[in-house]
Amino acid sequence: MDADIAPSTRGRILVVDDDDNLRRVLTLRLESAGYEVTAASCGEEACEKLPDAEPHMVITDLRMPGIGGIELLEAIQKRTPGIPVAILTAHGEIPDAVRATQAGAVDFLTKPVGAELLTCVEAHVRQSREYEVDGQDMDGIVTHSPLVRAVLHDARRIARHDSAVLICGPSGSGKELLAGAVHKASGRCGRPLVAINCAAVPPELLESELFGHRRGAFTGANYDHPGLFRSAEGGTVFLDEIGDMPERLQSKLLRVLQEREVRPVGELRSVPIDVRVVSATHRDLPAMIAEGSFREDLFYRLNVVQLRLPALVERREDIPLLVAHRLTQLAECGVPRRVFSPEAMEQLLTFAWPGNVRQLFNVVEQTVALSPGRVISSLLVRRALGEHESSMPSLDNARDEFVQNYLRQTLRLAEGNVSRAARIAGRNRTDFYKLMRRYRIGAQGDQNS
């Protein structure tokens, strides 16, 4: 249980709606269910109350005078991207709902709100509180994925200790970002975090970069160099791509970890060090041990605690949130604000992403730079992904693609409830079922065979 929350309180909710009656009803229902509620009548008031309210979840109306729901959502994602935000929508607001999805909304509640209110709040508040440790966020990491949240939960706990950490995961999945977050959440955060990519430094220079050298120790050593470990004194050393470290240096690194001292190249005496070691790799180190290219004893020294980041395809639900986060970063650098069309977002959601989050961010940046207007088209995304089309699609094919995407989006917004999806689309239930059968779309928006 969080120390700052009374035992009778299930969590903190910020409710934002310009309708006084609806705001009161929502507040009473949530308070009767055990939640602590802060209410705001507009987006501007919500922004003012956000720091003091410290909500575990925000529920906001989509359309309000001044700052609307989407603008409020974007402001919250910019300030505290970990807070889940649900949007209150009226029927027929699909384009705005798609925009909200792109900005990172976790759910949509259609007015009038029924029993789904407490179901939605319970799920997201429980998840938000489960991974809240001493009110501390893992710096710079945005996610709704249960897989990533579980990793962050472990990372927060082990950050307080000095145990060596090995971060595993495919290239581009955010291992360096996680290493930095562990350092910032640790007691060593006031001291340096010094990083080196073991694969990027020539083998003949890596030893002096790690452990330092004396002037004149070798050709080109024109000055004393403290090395990575001594530069990080009192802080954290991050050894990226540790699986690419030459075998000759693995034994020397092992000795440094065992004896807690380094001997610079050309020096006769060893120097004591006080550092924490965090390492990362995309390689299969146990397989390398089996083939004899990585030391088993070094592996056990580095692998006291292991954190494994999933590939982006294992956390597709994070793609809209990551896209919104990158768009916000670009906008803060003076780049005009852009949004992805529904078809373009669908392509991002379904792509294989061999380069993971790094590749996704590159695609976002490239399409933002090349987009002639505010809306980024699916054609630009296809080009950025290397999926060129030889010709314009026919009118029939273009219409079919639009209807398929529309059905998928509607069913996902309706959480698989076909009657609700039909109401959103303005069609009767029988006609909607016919469209689903024609385009082979399942109730969850998936493609039937």
UniProtKB/TrEMBL annotation:
Pfam families: AAA_lid_14 (PF25601), Response_reg (PF00072), Sigma54_activat (PF00158)
Residue numbers of 4-aspartylphosphate PTMs: D61
Superkingdom in the source lineage: Bacteria
GO molecular-function term, one example from the UniProt record: DNA binding
Record-annotated Response regulatory domain positions: 12-126
Gene Ontology biological-process annotations: phosphorelay signal transduction system; regulation of DNA-templated transcription
PROSITE patterns: RESPONSE_REGULATORY (PS50110), SIGMA54_INTERACT_2 (PS00676), SIGMA54_INTERACT_3 (PS00688), SIGMA54_INTERACT_4 (PS50045)
Gene3D superfamilies cross-referenced by the UniProt entry: 1.10.8.60, 3.40.50.2300, Homeodomain-like (1.10.10.60), P-loop containing nucleotide triphosphate hydrolases (3.40.50.300)
Alphabetical UniProt keywords: ATP-binding, DNA-binding, Nucleotide-binding, Phosphoprotein, Transcription, Transcription regulation, Two-component regulatory system
Keyword GTP-binding among UniProt keywords: no
Domain Sigma-54 factor interaction: 141-369
Name used for this protein in its record: Two-component system response regulator GlrR
Organism encoding this protein: Panacagrimonas perspica
